Amino acid sequence: MIECIKELKKNILLITMILGIFHCSTPQQKAEEFAFENACPKYGFFTQEEIEKLISAGSNTSSAFYFLNELEEKVGLVKPDVAIKTIDGRVIHKNSTALYSANTIKTKKDFESYQKDLKDICGNDVQAFAKTKYELIEASKLEVEKIKQSTAWTKAFKDSAEFNLGEAGDQLKLAYFNSKDHDYLNKISYSSDPSEESEDRKNWVDIKRKKYIIISKDNSEKNSYFFTKDYNFNNKTYPIYFEQGVTFGRSGMISGDGLYIPRFFSEDISIPMNPELATSIKNGTIYDLDVIFTLKLVEKEYSYYYVNDSGLEIVLNEEKANLIRTADPYVYRSLSKRSGNGRIIELKPLYFIFSIPSENIIITNVK
Predict the structure, then answer these.
(1) Which site in 77, 110, 239, 263 is 20 to 30 Å from 194, CA atoms measured?
(2) DSSP letter string over 303-366?
C-alpha cells in the first residue's frame, strides 16, 4: 500500500512538471504545435478578411496566430505573428500581415524579400499567386518606353519644347512671357546679368522654333496643372485638360482669388476608359500622363480693377470688385478700372500616353 502511494506521488509530480513546462512555453512554441499549413500557393495574396476570419474561428489554425505579449494584444496597435509550416516541414515565424500584403509591394528590395520568403515556404517550383505592385509598375514602365520608341512619338518628341511642372520660371515660359520682351499682364518678371541673358536668349530662340510642347506628370505629382471634367457617357471618354496661369493679389476683406489670367490652356484630352476607372481617378487614383501638344499664340484683352492699398497691390475682376463695395467701401472708392492684354498659348493634344503603373493600365492614341 505504501509503495502504491509512493508511485502515485511520483506520477502526480511528473504530471505537474509536464504541465508546468507547457505553461512556461513561449507563445511562439505554443503556436508551432498548430503551425499554419495552407500558406501555399497564396502566400502574400490572402485577403485581410480571410486571415481575420481564420484568427477568430477558434480552430487549431487559429492557434497558429499569436501575440508576443498580452500588452500587444490589448493595445491592438500591431497585428499578430503567425507560425507557418514550410513545404519541407520546418516552421518559420512571420507577422500575419505578410500573408496578405504582397499586392502592396512597390520596391525592388521588398519584392526580392517576398520572393525569398515564397521560395522558403513553398519551394522553388511554386509560382506566386498574383503579381505584386512592383511587377505591375515595372511592366508598365517597359510598355510606356516601347510606345515612346514608336516612329510617331519619336518624330514629334524631337520637335517638342518641354514644359517643366516644377519651376514657375523655366525656359519655356520665359521664352514666351519674359518681362524684357513682353508687357503682357501675365508676363514673368525676368532679370539677369548680360552673359546669362545671352545664353537664355539662345535657348528661347531654339524653343520658339519647336512645333510642339510636351507636358508630363508622373504619379508622384498629386498636384499638377492637369484637371478633369465630368465623364462623357456618349463617347465613353474621360476629359482631362491642362491649364496654368497667374493669379494677382486680392483684398483680405473678401474670399477667393484676385484676377486670374491663364498662360497655357489646352483643349480636352479625351481618354477612352470605362466609368469605373474614371470614378477611381476622380476619387484620387494617381496617374502618369505624357502629352504632346500643338500650340497657337493668342492675345486677349482683360478689364480689371486696381488699387494700391498701403503697398498691397489689389487686382480684381468685376465680380470681386463688386464684393468690395460692401466689404471694404474705402478700397472700393479707390479702385480704378483698367485694361490690358494677356497672352495665352492654346494647346491642342496631338499624342497622349496615359497610365496607372501600379495597375499596369496604359491608354494611348499613339499608333
Answers:
(1) 263
(2) EEEEEEETTEEEEE-HHHHHHHHHH-HHHHHH-EEEEEEEEEEEEEEEEEEEEEGGGTEEEE--
Beta bridge partner(s), residue 240 = 228, 269
214 closest CA partner among 154, 263, 167:
154
Distances (CA, A) of 165 to 205, 215, 225, 310: 21, 8, 8, 34
Distance in angstroms between the alpha carbons of the first and the last residue of the chain: 99
pLDDT(12) > 90:
no
The per-residue pLDDT for range 275-298, each reduced to its tens digit, is 999 999 999 898 999 999 999 999
Q: Are 307 and 334 in contact (CB under 8 A)?
A: yes
| 8 A C-beta contact, residue 363 and residue 354 | yes
Which spans in 178-311 are helix H?
A: 194-209, 275-282
**Strand pairing category for 361-364 and 312-316:** unpaired
pTM given for the model: 0.78
180 versus 314: which is more confidently predicted? Answer: 180
User: CA 324 to CA 52: how far, in whole Å?
Assistant: 59
**Cell 484630352 -> residue:** 269
pLDDT tier at 310 (50, 70, 90 boundaries)? confident
How far is Cα of residue 19 from the mean position of the Cα atoms in its chain? 55
% of the chain surpassing 70 pLDDT = 87
What gap in Å lies between CA 79 and CA 47, rounded to an integer? 14
Phi–psi pair at 123, nearest 5 degrees: 95, 170
CA distances to 83, 146, 266, 351 from 153, rounded to whole Å, are 53, 10, 19, 7
Spatial separation of the C-alpha atoms in residues 157 and 152, rounded to whole Å = 9
The contacts found for 54-60 with CB under 8 angstroms, 24 or more apart, are 55/80, 55/96, 60/34
Q: pLDDT at residue 22 above 50?
A: no
